[in-house]
Amino acid sequence: MKVADFVEKYAVERKHTDSVKWDGMKAGFGSNDLLPMWVADTEFKAPEAVMYALKKRIEHGAYGYSLTPDSYYEAYFKWQQERYGTELHKEWIRFGAGVVQSISALVNVLTLQDDAIMVLQPVYHPFMHVIEDNERKLIVSNLKDNNGHYEMDFEDIRNKIQTEHVKLLINCSPHNPVGRVWTAAELEKLFEICREEKVLVISDEIHHDLIVGDNKFVSAIAIKDGFYRDNIVMLDAASKTFNLAALQNSHVVIANPQIRERYDEYVKKLCLPSGNLIGKVAAEAAYRDGADWLDGMLGLIKYNFNYLKSQFAENVPEVKVTELEGTYLAWVDMRKMVSADKLHHLIQHEARLAVDYGEIFGTAGEGFIRLNLATTPENVEKAVNAIVKALKN
Ligand SMILES: Cc1ncc(COP(=O)(O)O)c(C=O)c1O
After folding, report:
1. CA torsion sign, 239 to 242 to 247 to 253?
2. Is the shortest distance between the CB of 100 and ligand 1 below 6 Å?
């Protein structure tokens, strides 16, 4: 589907619809009168098949306690198998009301108070909050920024695991915000270190459908034919891909039966939610019939990214745009153009944008901004032009 056709068919006004991105800016930015390029959701309607399935289910009228039908597992497993070669089994699957909620539960299941947990920064900020809010010790290994290409620092990872007695690693794959789609070789190296050092892994794969570069996505539980999967809990959802975040349905994939048992006990003790009827109806329909829509979405992300990259290169080449392999989040290095103390003023008060500032992802993110490209080309054009103009002034 052409980009213009996708936009025409699916773009939708979200302002004044109680959206966090548009109507919730005031809380974080002091004004709702900015162009929002923050929050990782999109300005697009879900696939028609999702809306149709939801309508049908809503019209039934009764929304009592519900099971997860076999058809759900079939659609989800087929999607994973055919697109990524990931093999799943029903007994491995648990449902959550969101990936972050499940990370928090798993931190409690897999570690004790004061245990050390590692993240690779800059990284999605709730990883750090969950670790610290649960009174665990945050251990950071910074990714190496190799001229805009981020790589894991395996030596640093192993050293810190040993010296800090790390028990758990939370990995983001594909990586928000640096946009890497880790190769199988990189992941294998990481998981081998974790296996040797007896470190468990949570693999947050919520962005796994949003692949826009050449690297193929490989799930942590499929690396080396599943060799590491007993050491790993994988988390994913249809929510990021298909813009379903508020329907609160996500997967916790636990191949290791002992970990599963401990997880189930914890969920029982806290009476944690196990997904949502409406969220499951939407996700099943998306997995079954959402592939063409997703192709349209990926085309749009590539288009928006190429525009952003070429405009900065042409007008302010000192602004460095990190190559986008996956996610719809552009990671933009402003350090050569603006000092850290002036960046917020420039973006918010001169360019009039709401963005995610790099430092929320860790100190390695200082001087960067993260821009959400899952919006119309018109909004990307406005945002980029506003930044270029503010910089030139
Ligand atoms: C890496 C990552 N994990 C989790 C989430 C949020 O997932 P949920 O809304 O299911 O908690 C996001 C949202 O941006 C994300 O980028």
Report:
1. negative
2. yes
The H or E element containing residue 384 is: helix 377-392
Structural domains in the chain, sorted by start: 3-46+291-392 (3.90.1150.10), 52-288 (3.40.640.10)
Summarised one tens digit per residue, pLDDT across range 130-144 is 999 999 999 999 999
Burial of residue 317 (CB within 10 Å: 0-12, 13-18, 19+) is exposed
State the pLDDT at residue 274: 86
* Binding site membership of 104 for ligand 1 (Cβ less than 6 Å): no
Which of ligand 1's atoms lies nearest the C-alpha of 39? 14
CA distance 71 to 372: 33
Q: Is pLDDT of 230 > 90?
A: yes
- Mean pLDDT, the chain, as a whole number? 97
Pocket of ligand 1 contains residue 119 by CB under 6 Å: no
C-alpha span between 49 and 289 (Å, rounded): 6
Closest Cα to atom 13 of ligand 1: 40
- Residue 28 in tokens: 């974080």
Whether 172 is in the pocket of ligand 1, judged by its Cβ within 6 Å, is yes
Shortest CA distance to 174 belongs to which of 166, 183, 165? 183
Q: Tally the C-alpha atoms within 13 A of residue 202's C-alpha that lie toward its C-beta.
A: 31
Calculate how far, in angstroms, residue 318's C-alpha sits from the geometric centre of ligand 1.
31
User: Does residue 343 contact residue 388 with C-beta atoms inside 8 Å?
Assistant: no
Looking up tokens 């917020």 gives 344
Q: Say how many C-beta atoms besides its own lie within 10 A of residue 298's C-beta.
A: 17
φ, ψ dihedrals at 115, nearest 5°:
-65, 155
Q: Is 237 close to ligand 1, i.e. is its CB under 6 Å away? A: yes
